[in-house]
Specification:
Helix content: 55-70%
Number of helices: 8
Strand content: under 5%
Radius of gyration: 34 Å
Number of strands: 0
Distance between the termini: 114 Å
Order of helices and strands: HHHHHHHH
């Protein structure tokens, strides 16, 4: 064997080794790319499934309705951010409105009002205690209850009873001519006589959602 032949074989062997290393490297890179693609596809699939689940849950919640007269059936998760005693108080307002002949529009106004006045909580204090607000004549405000009604609306007992307080509110709303044609917050302002006629506007959408959700059919009562 000549020296030149040995060198040629060594050169070819080295070339084959380099080619083998390149092929191995290419296979490793291909595997990594496949793994990355698989991870991306899996993440997209999980996100898609989660998105579909969330959309389905939201649709289910929108489609669900509850009987206002059965607070035990109300969802623990709440409706549009309102839950527990807040929904129970909203239901009381709605039922009072129905009894007095007010339809959905009137019910929404009542719930809007209580949202803006007390966050739908039957509280025994008002603006004076929390913010030092006074009446135009400088006297302390005496606001209490769901509707934050002052003493000229009725007795403490009347204003602190949700159904009676709602009755007082609707008695005044019913005397307001053309209230259906007004902006809801403006109509409420004329009943409540508060400083800002736009104060209640931000609660309109949520009040409507609560009223609609609590307007579901009630199971028939068997004798």
């Amino acid at each position: 064997m000549t020296a030149g032949g040995a060198q040629e074989r060594a050169r070819r062997a080295a070339a084959r080794q380099r080619a083998a290393r390149r092929r191995a490297k290419a296979r490793r890179e291909s595997s990594r790319r496949m793994l990355r693609r698989g991870a991306i596809v899996a993440a997209i699939s999980v996100s898609a499934v989660a998105g579909v689940w969330l959309l389905s849950l939201a649709a289910l919640q929108r489609d669900q309705s509850y009987c206002a007269a059965q607070p035990a059936s109300f969802p623990a998760a709440g409706i549009s951010g309102w839950s527990g005693e807040q929904l129970e108080n909203a239901a009381t307002i709605m039922l009072t409105a129905r009894r007095l002949g007010f339809d959905r529009d009137g019910q929404v106004l009542g719930v809007m009002t209580a949202m803006g006045e007390s966050s739908l909580r039957n509280i025994g204090h008002g603006d004076w205690e929390t913010s030092g607000v006074t009446n135009p004549d400088g006297s302390r405000t005496s606001s209490i209850g769901l509707f934050q009604q002052q003493k000229w609306w009725g007795s403490v007992a009347e204003r602190m009873d949700p159904a009676t307080a709602a009755t007082l509110f609707y008695a005044r709303l019913g005397k307001l001519k053309g209230w259906r044609d007004m902006e809801p917050s403006h109509a409420i302002n004329l009943v409540q006589v508060n400083a800002d006629k736009e104060h209640y506007a931000r609660f309109h959408h949520e009040a409507a959602e609560v009223v609609d959700a609590l307007s579901g059919p009630c199971p028939a009562v068997t004798p």
